[in-house]
Design goal:
The protein is mainly α. It is built from 8 helices and no strands. It has a single domain, classed as AhpD-like (Up-down Bundle), CATH 1.20.1290.10. 61% of the residues lie in helices and 0% in strands. Helix 3 packs antiparallel against helix 4.
């Protein structure tokens, strides 16, 4: 087979090996945050934040994890246009995606009260606190992966190393 794709880039830095205490702290924070979040919503949020942050490594990982967990290809594809594709998602998922967009893209200002209020209508306080934590954590993972140029394409669901 003739493969005319571009070669993979080289990662800049093995940050998890060079700063293992930071990596381990992120893993613990991730585990604590996700305890209170519905697993389907968690993967949708992770994929959406990764789209916004242009994080190919995390898009690869979380799309594959979502598919392995039974998520539909259609719902994953439509995430980049969720506002136009609301009929693919539940009210809770829409509130989580809207909150993800607001928390992830802070350059346009703070998280609007209306966005928070809509999320607070469908999530109780504990769920909302964990959801905000999960959104914050995936944004952190995205920033580590993008800044160190982690390479997408090699992740397999259930993989242990550098999994978040």
């Amino acid at each position: 087979m003739n493969d005319n794709r571009n070669p993979e880039h080289t990662p800049r830095l093995a940050w998890a090996e060079l700063a293992p205490d930071v990596y381990k702290a992120m893993v613990r924070l991730d585990a604590a945050a996700r305890r209170g979040v519905d697993p389907v919503i968690l993967e949708l949020v992770r994929i959406r934040a990764s789209q916004l942050n242009h994080c190919a490594y995390c898009l690869d990982m979380h799309s594959k994890d979502a598919l392995a967990a039974g998520e539909s290809v259609d719902r994953i594809i439509q995430l980049s246009a969720w506002e136009e594709s609301r009929h693919f998602y539940t009210a809770r998922e829409i509130a989580a995606l809207e909150l993800t967009d607001a928390v992830t893209v802070l350059t346009e200002g703070f998280v609007p009260d209306a966005v928070h209020e809509r999320a607070a209508k469908v999530f109780d306080g504990t769920e909302l606190a964990h959801l905000i934590a999960a959104i914050t954590v995936i944004n952190g993972w995205n920033r580590f992966a993008v800044s160190t140029r982690m390479v997408a394409g090699h992740y397999a669901p259930g993989q242990v190393s550098h999994r978040h």
